[in-house]
Amino acid sequence: MSEFSIKDIDDVIHGRIRLGIMAYLIGAQRAPFKTIAGALDTTDGNLSVHLRKLEDAGYIAIEKSFVGRKPLTEAVLTQEGREAFVNYLDAMAKLGAG
Amino acid sequence: MSEFSIKDIDDVIHGRIRLGIMAYLIGAQRAPFKTIAGALDTTDGNLSVHLRKLEDAGYIAIEKSFVGRKPLTEAVLTQEGREAFVNYLDAMAKLGAG
């Protein structure tokens, strides 16, 4: 039965904002903080919290640089993050197998 | 880009316990309250709250009957619930399309 596969679902990814971040990065691979905040329609503070949680899990890296004198913060999907997201989607798909 | 499909995700289903209920019922179609509580390792009170929310959305029906003199409460997946769960899984799968 499929009920046990609910435990295979990665809580780090399942949260709605984090799921949005991962879905964005699986396509874009890297994106500026501001771009992600705009795409997900979230506040900077809220986004920071969730990026930190993904970073702590090793799923993304945060890279800080300068474009001229302007600081640029980017989130970059790691290989581990890509694999975790693929596994997450697999676990979700299995829920439908009943 | 996939970021907008995050809004297509059905919040009624996305909650972890409700997701477990739906995943259970997509296979079993109907199940006793106690069976679901055991499968998802949740308390009766917690399960009741989430069943109510799914019932309010029209995704399940709650049927009460007697087996001999023992009351039996069952959750039954509705056609609407089945469609909503399929749509939910479709939306999740699209997140991986990047």
Global mean pLDDT of chain A? 90
Q: Which homologous superfamily in CATH is the superfamily of chain A?
A: Winged helix-like DNA-binding domain superfamily/Winged helix DNA-binding domain
In the CATH scheme, what's the topology name of chain A? Arc Repressor Mutant, subunit A
The oligomeric state of the chains shown is: homodimer
Rg of chain A, alpha carbons: 15 Å
Determine the structural class of chain A based on helices, strands and strand pairing: alpha+beta
Overview of the structural elements:
2 copies of one chain form a homodimer. Chain A is an alpha+beta fold and 98 residues long. Chain A has a single domain (2-95), classed as Arc Repressor Mutant, subunit A (Orthogonal Bundle). Chain A is built from 5 helices and 3 strands. Chain A has helices at 11-14, 16-28, 33-40, 44-56, 79-95, and strands spanning 30-32, 60-67, 70-77. Chain A has a 3-stranded antiparallel sheet with strand order 1-3-2. In chain A, a hairpin with a 2-residue loop joins strand 2 and strand 3. The model of chain A has no long low-confidence stretch (mean pLDDT 90). The A-B interface holds A 1-6, 9, 11, 14, 16, 19-20, 22-24, 26-28, 39-40, 85-86, 89, 92-93, 95-98 and B 1-6, 9, 11, 14, 16, 19-20, 22-24, 26-28, 39-40, 85-86, 89, 92-93, 95-98.
